[in-house]
Each structure stands twice: as structure tokens, then as C-alpha cells.
Amino acid sequence: QVQLVESGGGLVQAGGSLRLSCAASGRTFNESDMGWFRQAPGKEREFVATISWNGITTRYAETVKGRFTISRDNRKNTVYLQLNSLKPEDTAVYYCAAGSSWGSAMRHEYEYDYWGQGTQVTVSS
Asked: What is the pLDDT of residues 78-117, one digit of tens each?
């Protein structure tokens, strides 16, 4: 079992930065792929980024490539999402997730087994 708690969200101006953290507990964390998703009001939850269990492989949604960076520190049981050059359209609740679907790209919700409660990111124009 993996428990995930996000933090680091807040209100920032367009062009600003935030770093989101997802603290994990559970013995299987080091074996789990991790992902970030987000959901804005009136929109479906969408994929943002994923990182493999060993941190070697990362994937990003086209909308955030070059602006967001996902990373993890398995020693600290934490995954991060660095948000740079934020835009108002990045406003959403950001969720971290953990999964272990071997051979999957980890871009879809169904590929994950555990979810955090989310942290709000609001970007003002």
C-alpha cells in the first residue's frame, strides 16, 4: 500500500514558479512509477508527467514540455514537480499518483493504483 500527500501549491503570477512535492509512504514506493495529473474546473483530469521507478525515464504532456520537470528522491520517498513559466491555463488541482504497470507509458489514469488528494495551483494573469 502506498499513501501519497501533495504539497507546495499556491497562488502565483503568470511566469512564476512553484515546486510541488508528493510525500509517499509505503514499502513499495521505490518500485513504483510516479505521475502527476491535473484537473481544472469543467475539464477532465489530464496527464502532466511521469517518472520511472529509478528516475531514468520521464515523459511529459506536450502542453508542459520545457516548462515542467518531474523528479524523485527515493531516499526521501518524495516525487517533485517543478513548475516554471506558469500560465493561467495551468491552474488546476494537481494530483500525484503511483503505479507499477510494466511496459506502459503511464500516461493514463488507469495505469496508476494510488492517488493523493491533490494540491491547488492557481496562476493569475
From this structure: 999 999 999 999 999 999 999 987 778 899 999 999 999 9
Cβ neighbours for 32, distance < 8 A, ≥ 6 positions apart: 2, 24, 53, 98, 99, 100, 114
97's grid cell: 499518483
Q: What does the alpha-carbon distance between residue 24 and residue 48 come to, in Å, rounded to a whole number?
A: 19
Q: How far apart are the first and last CA of the chain?
A: 40
- Alpha carbon distances (Å) from 48 to 1, 41, 45, 75: 23, 16, 9, 23
Beta bridge partners of 15: none
8, 86 Cβ separation under 8 angstroms: no
CA atoms within 13 A on the CB side of 2: 25
